[in-house]
Automatic annotation (TrEMBL):
CDD domains in the cross-refs: Endonuclease_V (cd06559)
Protein name per Swiss-Prot or TrEMBL: Endonuclease V
Site positions (Interaction with target DNA): Y88
Binding site for Mg(2+): D54, D118
PANTHER family, per database record: ENDONUCLEASE V
E.C. code: 3.1.21.7
Length: 245
DNA sequence: GCGACAG
DNA sequence: ATCTTGTCGC
């Protein structure tokens, strides 16, 4: 697939200020409402191609793995390795992991209808998390799936949720969005029958999706584990590339 | 100064 | 994210 807007390519700008300015542009360019056509039904039927993306690290390099699914079946895989240009900084993840991700996606011969990224989308200080950055860069519907919450506040307690339940995540005063704007959801993809609790996933739209639809799509991706199938497979592939099978 | 902080 | 043994629970 091809980058739609070269100016949004996540390469490391000179300063933190420059990176934050670019994120403000990303957020302004991102659409946080349904504007693409990809529906949960399309994901189920196989009418939509879903790409799961995840990274693994080796010393000073990052390896990004992409797995494309059509109705739960793997139809393509790609990967890319690039040197790390900066350390992990909360709020600037896209500038650390974006280069290998974009490179791996560019190597794809097919064009996914939905990108599922490991990290936040709109749940971000400037509403420009990894999923928004990559989604806007390719101008493709994207959703972010994080294992922990970067910012924002759950509308109610998120412990003891049943499988399938979701709780809105509202913007707090650390974010650019008006307070209480629903920027994503805590989504309980899996849960044990009793005692032991599994933490929920934090799903947020990256581009061309409303918060509710983003979560519906992740649910439609399925999977036997906590992470949605596309992400789980990309995670395994990345680890496979890192070690050597 | 204190607390919070995707991967 | 990554480094890792043991350990709790279905």
């Amino acid at each position: 697939m091809d980058v739609a807007a070269e100016r949004f390519r996540p390469t490391r700008p000179g300063s933190r200020e420059a990176m934050e300015r670019l994120q403000a542009e990303i957020a302004a360019e991102a659409t946080f409402e349904d504007a693409a056509g990809v529906t949960p039904a399309d994901v189920h039927s196989g009418d939509a191609l879903v790409a799961g993306v995840d990274q693994a690290f080796l010393d000073d390099r990052a390896v990004s793995a992409v797995v494309v699914l059509r109705g739960g079946e793997v139809i393509a895989r790609e990967s890319a390795v690039t040197p790390l240009s900066m350390p992990y900084v909360p709020g600037l993840l896209a500038f650390r992991e974006g280069e290998p991700i974009v490179a791996a996606l560019e190597a794809l011969d097919v064009d996914p209808d939905l990108l599922v990224l490991d990290g936040s989308g709109r749940i971000h200080y400037r509403e420009a998390g990894l999923a928004a950055h990559v989604g806007v860069c390719f101008d493709v519907p994207a959703v972010g799936v994080a294992k922990s919450l970067l910012c924002g506040r759950p509308r109610r307690a998120t412990d003891a949720l049943e499988a399938g339940e979701r709780v809105p995540i509202e913007a707090d005063d650390s974010m650019s969005a008006p307070e209480e704007t629903v920027v994503g959801h805590a989504y309980q993809s899996r849960q044990y029958p009793d005692s032991t609790r599994i933490n929920p996933l934090y799903v947020s739209p990256g581009h061309r999706l409303a918060a509710g639809t983003a979560t519906d799509l992740v649910a439609a991706c399925g999977g036997e584990y906590k992470l949605p199938r596309p992400t789980r497979l990309a995670d395994r592939y990345a680890d496979e590339l890192k070690t050597g099978r």
